[in-house]
Fold:
Amino acid sequence: MNRSSRELRRARLRFAAAFVAVGGVLLALYSFPYAEHGMREVGFAWYLGAYARAAGSLIHLADPTLRVSGADLVGRTSLTVAKNCDAMDVNLLLVAAMIAFPAPWKRRLVGIVAGVGLLSIVNLLRIVALYQINVHAPRAFEFIHAEVFPLVMVVLAVGAFGLWSRWSRQAEPASVEAPANAEA
Structure:
């Protein structure tokens, strides 16, 4: 094994170890049980309710009977935005991969904001689609909810990471400065 292949192998192992460590910590913080009626539970209920209100505002365009109560969407069908319906696990794994990847911190932050934003918008559209599927094809709901959409979210996150990792390794564009003796 030559020196460059050993260095590449070490870099890949460092990335994998950092990804597992950061991802594990983030997922543990998200999944860790919290006190009933505690501050964290109240904040999480508000967060899921905000997701439901955002999805409800879109669903209401097609179903004016829709009402949102907390994290519940009630109209021609009922749907609850529960923990794990927020795609947080996929978001956290994307964030962990971007933190673990050897890139400048500025580019990591751009990637995290753009990636989480993209996944959040797609997840919002996923909730809207699931509501419509439950109205028009209720027998397909469970399969699409449990099998199809999770795969779509993972593929999207992996694709976003792949594109971001290529972009993050490109050289920063040199800043263009006017020569010191230039006249305006």
Notes: The chain has one domain: 3-168. The first strand starts at residue 67 and ends at 69. Residues 43 and 49 are 10 Å apart (CA to CA). DSSP finds five helices and three strands in the chain.
